[in-house]
Write a structure and sequence with these properties.
single chain, 261 residues, alpha+beta, Immunoglobulin-like, 5 helices, 13 strands
Length: 261
């Protein structure tokens, strides 16, 4: 009987190919790629912690830890058995500076973590004990202890009472300074007043493009408050970032072509 010998070079190439097949699917990211981390509690969204931003020193430590675990995790390839439309009990949404989004959720056991690659609507299985534990319970220690309520002196006009508002106007695609309706006014003030933490922006560019959509609140004290998108986050008065889901959706709606009639 003849014995077939596989040339060493061929064997090495085959092993490299097989070993790299799963690795290529791994959404490895660096801290410099991160726009924000948002831990979301599906059944109690009102308890969602504020997003983590790499510009914040304490946040950056957590972001570095999570991205490191993702890079070290064992990839088990794409999981076609897990629907990306299913709703986990909680998950971590990672927004990247290039516009991509990853959504991490913990499996029930075996240290499995599902990574939904939102852009391609695919789900990747990772195996990481550290990441799995953090997504279930570790996040509470890390995230809830990073920030306290913080409203800077420059935003001392917050919270805003409707009786102190002279007018509210909105800008967007095909919308040039339209006066907000009574319902919009009430909602905008409710959303703005619900924000309890703002992050000072550092290293702002000298010139910036006009935002795609904007809300301007005119107070009876002659103060003017601007709220608009800056990257993937919200910005107030061109200097502080914050997060508020309803305001994000409202501003995105103003910037969308669907608002045209």
């Amino acid at each position: 009987m003849k014995k077939w010998l596989v040339p060493p070079l061929v064997l090495i190439c085959f092993l490299i190919f097989v070993g790299c097949k799963n690795v290529s699917e791994l959404p490895f990211v660096k801290v410099s790629d991160i726009q924000s981390f948002q831990y979301e509690i599906v059944m109690h969204k009102e308890n969602n912690p504020v997003p983590l931003l790499p510009s914040n020193t304490k946040d950056k430590v957590i972001i570095e830890k999570i991205t490191s675990w993702m890079g070290q995790a064992k990839s088990e390839g794409l999981d076609n058995q897990v629907t990306t439309q299913s709703i986990p009990p909680n998950f971590l949404t990672i927004k990247l500076t290039n516009g991509s989004t990853y959504r991490l959720s913990p499996g029930g056991n075996n240290d499995i973590v599902y990574v939904q690659i939102v852009d391609t609507n695919k789900t990747l299985r990772l195996r990481s004990s550290d990441l799995h534990t953090w997504l279930w319970t570790g996040w509470e220690i890390d995230i809830q202890n990073t920030k306290t309520d913080y409203i800077p002196k420059e935003l001392s006009f917050l919270p805003i009472s409707e009786k102190n508002v002279s007018n509210i106007k909105v800008w967007g695609r095909g919308i040039d300074g339209r006066e907000a309706t009574s319902e919009e006014t009430q909602n905008i003030l409710k959303w703005v007043n619900s924000v309890k933490h703002f992050e000072k922006e550092e290293n702002l560019p000298g010139e910036r493009k006009a935002p795609m959509s904007e809300i301007r609140i005119y107070l009876k004290t002659n103060q003017e408050i601007s709220i608009h998108r800056w990257g993937k986050n919200l910005e107030i008065n061109w200097s502080y970032q914050f997060a508020q889901t309803d305001l994000e959706k409202f501003l995105d709606g103003l910037a969308s072509p669907t608002t045209l009639k």
